[in-house]
Every structure is written in structure tokens, then in C-alpha cells.
Amino acid sequence: MKYYTRKGDDGLTTFIGKGRIKKYDLKLQALGSLDETTTSLGLARGLSVDEKVKNILLKVQRDLSGMMGEVAADPAEAAKFRTIQPANVAWLEEQADDITAVVEAPRSFLMSGDTPAGGALGFARATSRRAERDAVELTDSGGLNNQAIIAYLNRLSSLLFVLELLELKSAGILDTSVAKKPVKE
């Protein structure tokens, strides 16, 4: 079996229900950003040593997989594929609040990378923000009609920030001030 078709070499891809479309189509952009976020969460989960973090990330990955089904659907049919509801957003908030209660807020700008898992969480946070921007653009164009998706992605970036702080705390890194760290020359 081959895992390539060469059909996309012309800058088009086959999309269910839409035929051949440009690879920069807003729907494909949003799906690509969600896929990148899901994959970066998998990297963070694989690098984490904290079981709570791993479990949270796995649930989020599953939520994003369901979300991709709705984003891929024709707007008229998307409600049939809806998996993200306000309750999912509330769950993210609960997780973030629980973690915020046990981590210290950074005193300055946080530069990701002090631990492998922390760096991966920082990367996942950045990709989730792009996914949010793409979801907003898709919504504004009429291609998506679920405000809970935008709220979910917005809360996700906040959750990923505090998860990174938790990973740093677990590693014994209490001072996250990158500006004060010497650079080796």
C-alpha cells in the first residue's frame, strides 16, 4: 500500500462534499491548525511526567478530534457532528482553576523550553492560538457556526499556559524569568 497519491501536487485536495478545493481554503486552514494543535498536544503528553497533565491532554486531544468533524462538515449539516458544547469550555476552566491554585504566577515573561514537556506545552499553546484565529475567520466567513468552539480554543491556550507552569513546578523550576538567565557563548 502506498501512502501518497500525487493528486495534491497541483495545490488542490479532495474534500468530501466540495470536490477539489485549494489547499489554502479557510476550512482546510482551520482543520490544519486543529491537527497541528492535536499533534503538539500528543508531543507534550508523551514528554510529560505528570499523570494529571497526561490525562488532561488526552481528553483535550479527543475533544479536538471531535471538533474537527464539525469543522469539516458543511455548515448546514455541522450540528449533527457537534461535540463541543459550553460544558466542554467549563471543564477547561475547572482544570485551569485547579492548576492555578497550586502554581505560582510568573513574575515576568515566560520563555518556554526549560523542560521538554514545558517547551512542548508552550508550542501547543501557540498552535492553539492559531487554531482559534482560524476558527474565528472561518466563523466570520460563514463556514462555522458554533461559538463554543472559539471559546474552547480560547480557554485551551490559558489551560496550556498553566499546565506549562505545573510542569516547571514539578521539575523544581521556580524562577521562570528568562531575562535573568545567562546565555552561554
Give a description of the structure.
This protein is globular. The protein has one domain: Hypothetical Protein Ta1238, Chain: A. The protein has helices at residues 26-47, 51-72, 86-100, 116-140, 147-170; strands spanning 12-15, 19-22. By secondary structure, it is mostly helical.
Strand and helix layout:
Blueprint: E1 12-15, E2 19-22, H1 26-47, H2 51-72, H3 86-100, H4 116-140, H5 147-170
Antiparallel strand pairs: 1-2
Helix pairs in contact: 1-2, 1-4, 3-5, 4-5
Gross morphology: globular
Measured as a percent range, the helix fraction is: 55-70%
- Looking at this structure, what is the CATH superfamily? Cobalamin adenosyltransferase-like
User: How many DSSP helices?
Assistant: 5
Rg is: 18 Å
Summarize, please.
Helix content is 58%, strand content 4%. The chain has 185 residues and is mainly alpha-helical. The model has no long low-confidence stretch (mean pLDDT 90).
Question: Key terms for this structure?
Answer:
single chain; mainly alpha; Hypothetical Protein Ta1238, Chain: A; 4% strand
